[in-house]
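Subject: Interface between my chains keeps coming out wrong

I've been trying for a while to get a sensible model of this assembly. When I model each chain on its own everything looks fine, but I need the whole thing in one frame so I can look at the contacts. Pasting all components below, labels as-is. Any help appreciated, I'm running out of ideas.
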Amino acid sequence: MKRVLPVTNAIIAIVSGVIVLLGYFFPGAFQGIQSVLVGWAIIIAAFALLLGIYNLAIVHWKKVGAEGQGNLYSVVLLVSLIITIVVVGFSGPTGSWSLWVFNTFQVPIEVSLLAVLAVVLAYAGARLFSRKPKWHTILFLVTVLLVLLGSVPLFLIGEIAPLSALRGWLSQVPAVAGARGLLLGVALGTVATGIRILIGVDRPYGG
Amino acid sequence: MEQVLSTPTDFLTFVFVLVCLGLILFFIYFGRKRPLFNLRDIPAFRHFRREVDLAVEAGKRLHISIGRGSVNDLPGGAAFIGLTILDRCARAASNSDRPPMSTTGDGVLTILGQDTLRSTYRSLATEQRYDPTNVRLTGLTPLSYAAGAMPTIREEQITANIYAGHFGTEIALLTEAGERSQSLTVAGTDNIPAQAVIYATANEPLLGEELYAAGAYLGAGPAHTASLTMQDIMRWLLVAVIVVGAILKLLGILS
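Reply #2:
Try treating it as a single job with all components included. I did that and got this:
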């Protein structure tokens, strides 16, 4: 059984993957079955989400039992999880109590983290020069500075037209060209990864 | 007649996929005994391999973050690379007292990560080492995922972090946590704005297609080396097509 199951998994995964791919090229022949398979995938993903939340709860339950500084945070997480499940269970996903929980706790905490993220990025930019003192680091930092200065009106000076024009050129010509080059590499990498999975060389499903 | 390829673009895409498949199979077949091309040096992978060895010797842990990309969508490609790296790290650290651990921001990736670890340990006949809580879902939104993964980096005696998957700019919080715990951070993603952040914040950034070369550089098998060769060939082909297209447009031959 231990040998049969991985092979069966691989056959199911490869056949499903090939059918979904062919559905894009030969819609008349494969689109019906492609839609069914994608629909199943969405349902399975929803169950996977529940298992993921179970995993989160188990990890923090174990932390509560262990000695350490993070116990209190784990207790807060577990209590919040239970309260949220109860509230959303009774009120519904778009009910007033559910939205209250979301708007009162989730949104302010995430906005605070965004503010921390802005500070972290500014600090990382400043630290970059001391860590990687190379010509492309200088180019990176000068470009960031020019784009920032060209994006906002400056204190007591207002908007500087040449800087705004330079910002426009930087973000529309070199930045787009570079991004397209990177995207080309990412797209080819994604195709290669997909093909490896379709031919059964990579089996991230226990095959 | 919807059963045939509906547009010229569909036809070209179909041919493109077939050519990629053909090249991969060709290089797998002819590169079985020894690789046809040498891999160029990517310092990030060289440093990471060294950190893996050090982690095994020092009894410390590796942290592999596979991001929050859904496998039902394009970001899934980067997440699968993260799973390959998780497999390689689990194999490399099979003698270590502390097995590698992984964090994700997606339910499906959590299960795939657990399955990857279980398969790896099964193939090494060390199934008793498998612990499902070594792969953790830390949050379902970008920032909650980062907030949940940060304490893991601090508390688990991590010696090296590799972030391989789909991330947004929130990856700065994760790389900063790695920096504070004085552990190596190697990071690669498919998201362009996040790549700029990685360049500024990670010890060893993986830009563009470098992330997708991870399997070949970490010794995941001839198929990974073959697909990397295919990527190089197709990239030069696409560059040639773009340059020729631009010249033809400049000359007014293409509208």
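Reply #3:
Confirming on my end. The mean pLDDT of chain B is 89.
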